[in-house]
Amino acid sequence: MTRILLVEDNEMNRDMLSRRLSRRGFDVLIAENGKDGVEIAASERPDLILMDMSLPVMDGWEATRQIKANPVTCGIPVIALTAHAMASDRDMALDAGCDDYDSKPVDLPQLVRKIEQLLTTPH
C-alpha cells in the first residue's frame, strides 16, 4: 500500500484530505507542522509527501529543503499544497525542492493524478 505523509496544520483540511486519500487506497501518515514532517519523513520513509507551505514551528519551504538535503529522504517526491495560487508561489515551492505544486482548495482527482504520476516517474 502506498504511504503518503500529509503535513497539514489545519485540522479540517487534514481530516478531509486524509479520509479521502484513505478511501482511494492510500495509507496516510500525518504531521501537524514542518518539524514533525521532517522527522516523520526520516523515520517512516513514506512514498510521497503532501506539504502545506504555511505551517507552524517550521514552514513547508524549510521542511522541504531539509527533506531534500537528507540522503535518507531526498528521493521522496514532495507536492506543495498552498492556498497561494500565484506563479511566484509555485516557483518558490519548486525552488525549495518540491516536485510538484497544487493549490487549495484541493481538486482531489487532479491531486491523485499528480500523486500517481510522481510515483511512477523515477527520481
Automatic annotation (TrEMBL):
Listed InterPro entries: CheY-like_superfamily, Sig_transdc_resp-reg_receiver
Pfam families named among the record's database cross-references: Response_reg
Modified residues (4-aspartylphosphate): 52
GO biological process: phosphorelay signal transduction system
Top-level lineage group: Bacteria
Ranges of residues in domain Response regulatory: 3-119
The UniProt record lists the keyword Kinase: yes
Keyword Transit peptide included in the entry's annotation: no
Protein keywords: Kinase, Phosphoprotein, Transferase, Two-component regulatory system
GO terms assigned for molecular function: kinase activity
Protein name (database record): Two-component sensor protein/histidine protein kinase
